[in-house]
Amino acid sequence: MSTTLLTHGRIVDPSRRMDTIGAVLIEDDKIVGAGPDGLNQGAPEGATIIDCRGHVIAPGLVDGRVFIGEPGFEHRETIRSASEAAAAGGVTSLVMMPDTSPVMDQPSLVEYVLRTARATSLVRIHPAAAVTRGLGGSEMTEFGLLREAGAVAFTDGRHTLDNPVVLRRAMSYARDFDALIAMETQDNALAANGVMNEGKLATLMGLPGIPREAELIPLQRDLALAALTGARYHAAKISCVMSADAIRRAKDNGHRVTAGVSINHLSLNENDVQGYRTFYRLSPPLRDELERHAMANALADGTIDIVVSSHDPQDVDTKRLPFDEAAPGAIGLETLLAALLRRVHDGTLPLMRAIEVVTSAPASLFGLPYGTLRPGAKADIAIIDLDAPWEVSDKDLRSHSRNSCFENARMSGRVLRTMVSGETVFELND
Amino acid sequence: MVVGTHSLSSRHLLGIRNLSELDIQFLLDKADKAVEVSRRPDKKTSALRGRTQINLFFEASTRTQASFELAGKRLGADVMNMSVASSSVKKGETLIDTAMTLNAMRPDILVIRHGSSGAAELLAQKVECAVVNAGDGQHEHPTQALLDALTIRRHKGSLQNLTVAICGDVLHSRVARSNIFLLGKMGARVRLVGPSTLMPSGIEEFGVEVFNRMEDGLRDADVVMMLRLQRERMAGGFVPSVREYFRFFGLDADKLALAKDDAIVMHPGPMNRGVEIASLMADAPQSVIEEQVEMGVAVRMAVLELLAGPSHNEAGGV
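Structure tokens for the assembled complex are given below, as produced in the milestone run.
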């Protein structure tokens, strides 16, 4: 039996509303104690002692929206490289999107991903299966069999379902399995060929814009169908205050609805697009500063439930292009926590809430027994220096792709060590 | 062709937005002199002798390409035209790969036309020589705005306090954007006239007045600048039909009568006669459309000389 004692750290465990100086005792792969009690009890004989004085001990992060290139686009990202990036960012569990090639719409694909993850991944990989076959938007996948195979949620990834009849049936059927349907909402016709937020800046830059209504209209339809069917519905990535209001109303009406926001939409605004830098081409597009601010507020007040990296590796072939020809998406596993801590440092988000939205909240949403330091849980842990200054350098990124919105950004707060099942999978060597 | 000395803040001409009033004034003065050169029997100068100019056109444009070619040749540059079919391969790959290849050939100036906004800026980051934006997507077309300004100035003496009505498909027009920036900087009042479906979002914040009726927008205008309506826009549902568009937004004698008596009529070409402009108006005495073409060569001579001229060659690092 191996024993590890993390001592004198500031334990922040939102699953127990705990924020205290204390110790975490790990035996083999499990937490056996985490709290102030362990402080003066000494270490069990033979235990490895890690002094966490001045640092935060938090549950390992659970990232609810990650695109990985494997299978099909391994040159962008493999499960192994994504897991290295995740570990460096304190992420111990991630929900993998089905936008692979072939699409994750068959139990065998889910099993393949889980098998590959067992063989190569440093962190836990939880596949989300497609809602419709081939992400084609017309034919429902086998929710029951896919769940049995290990799918934790159903989503058409980057795709919005155009057909409300298909979505209604999918939601009704999903409810029977208590399966979560997580959708991005962007009306394809209204977004048309848009590539950035519609408004003055888009006009100035000569780029076609996407109005906020392109997000709101399908979202309202989805929320109405969620109410109709009683399904568990998750708006995967919202970007504007109108969407937050719609989510708030649905929640107030008692519907089983949740929402996520990407760290990019919490951190950046449309002004970052100036200079036509394609790393800032995202879907939904970066909105204006008022909307960004509203997202932070909606996160703080609980309207938005989780923050995701929306890690989306793209290579030079898809990014080194004129802005309107480039693929949307940015990597983010390694910078998720550091960027989120900016909101803590600027006072818009309490630390407890910041940790919650990337640990216990997503774990609960996807039905995962992680994101907690509760005794008995797997020892998935992130040790964090809240104030460590560092600069994001593309040469240090572990992802196969380099399309980071935070390239060269200065951060305060960094993961020092990441543990999965009690094993250290990342340790900062600076 | 020397008009004092002045250098732009950038070694490229990517848009009007980053030019100062002084930059514009200087370029227009320089272009004025180039008009004289172009009207001489011997039109050739040696200002760019030994320099290499490459015109890189990813979008077909006979007029603009010819204008740049002529301008370069009149200055004595070695001019090479490259038309890259946009459908052949993925455009972006072509753009950057071609740019890098051309850069290795050590040109002094690259003139680029591309269907994507920001393409000229992207290319400018990749090459070492000066880059002139000859139109990128729906973004900017700076030499068109400069030639329009030169044409107006030669007719009206100054741009200050003039009322310029820019009419038609503003949404898709890089010409309109560059003109809005330039005319605003030079003290003209800009009106945009057209259906709401062809007005970009937030355009009111650019210091312009927006009108949806020609009758209102043209009243007492000094300059009526018509924009080309691209035929494919009709099918896209921006306007219901050509006859409807012409009836309400096409320039005819009745509508022009609302402008000042000495108003001039402009069009960047090529024109859709009977769509945005009646044939009679295109050929009327108020029309300065052909003169715009002449001014285009002069403006491009001024720009090329300023960016690729002797004082810039060595510093350009090519």
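Chain B has two domains: 12-141+294-310, 142-288. The longest strand of chain B covers residues 130-136. Further analysis is deferred to the final report.
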